[in-house]
Amino acid sequence: MLNPDDYIFIGIIGKTTKIDGSLTIVPLTTFPERFKDMEEFFLTKEYASPMTVKVENIVYNKKKITIKLQGIDSIEKAQELMGYRITVHKDAKADLPEDFYYHDDLKECTVYSSEGNELGKLVNVLEMSSNDIYVVDHRGKELLIPAISQFVKEIDIEKRKITVSLINGMLPATDVASTDVDGALTDED
To answer: Structural domain boundaries of the chain?
Structure first.
């Protein structure tokens, strides 16, 4: 049986494009060009067993990715796959450029101030048009940190540690009275 934690979703099967069973791919990856070299992957859907599919042909351009899978030779067969998630083992993740990270690798990292004070665990990454936002569980409240070099100073995936430098006003409102910018308790406590 497959362990879901060992796999990542990199796309979704979209609409049919031809009577031969070709389908579009909706990429869920920052690097959609990775589909060009794929020979097989898993298709998964809630409550359905994963199935291995082999790629017969793939056409990639910047606007659309079209795929033809072996054994899918009609619109009817292709329509049955619409909405399935394209899934690969974590070991098959694309290599990222320096200073790029997979969201799953960042989640559950402990976030520290540049002075070494623990601020909490990173629980989510929000994708925004300008930059990602790291969501940190800081004493039960959300601490939102823009993923830019002004605030994120170091990421060490192996140690599961992220070091940040915050400015006044970034800590959740209920913590402002009891902590300084670096998350350390003040004399008011």
So the answer is: 4-92, 103-176
Q: How far is CA 162 from the centre of its chain?
A: 17
CA distance from start to end of the chain? 51
In CATH, the architecture of 103-176 is Roll (2.30)
How far is it between the farthest Cα atoms of the chain? 72
- The CB density around residue 157, as the number of other CB atoms within 10 Å, is 12
CB 154 within 8 A of CB 164: no
pTM listed for this prediction: 0.59
- The CATH number of domain 4-92, selected from 2.40.30.60, 3.40.50.300, 1.10.10.60, 3.90.1150.100: 2.40.30.60
**Residue of 113, 152, 112 whose CA lies nearest to 132:** 152
Three-class DSSP category at 81: helix
Helices (H) and strands (E) in the chain, counts: 3, 12
Q: Token pair for residue 18?
A: 């031809």
Residue written as token pair 């409550």: 47
Q: What percent of the chain has pLDDT over 70?
A: 88
How confident is the model over 5-64, as pLDDT tens digits? 677 888 999 999 988 999 999 988 877 888 888 899 889 887 667 889 999 999 987 778
Reference 175, options 122, 126, 120, 115; nearest CA is 120
Question: For the segment 79-103, what is each residue's pLDDT rounded down to a tens digit?
Answer: 999 999 998 877 777 777 787 887 8
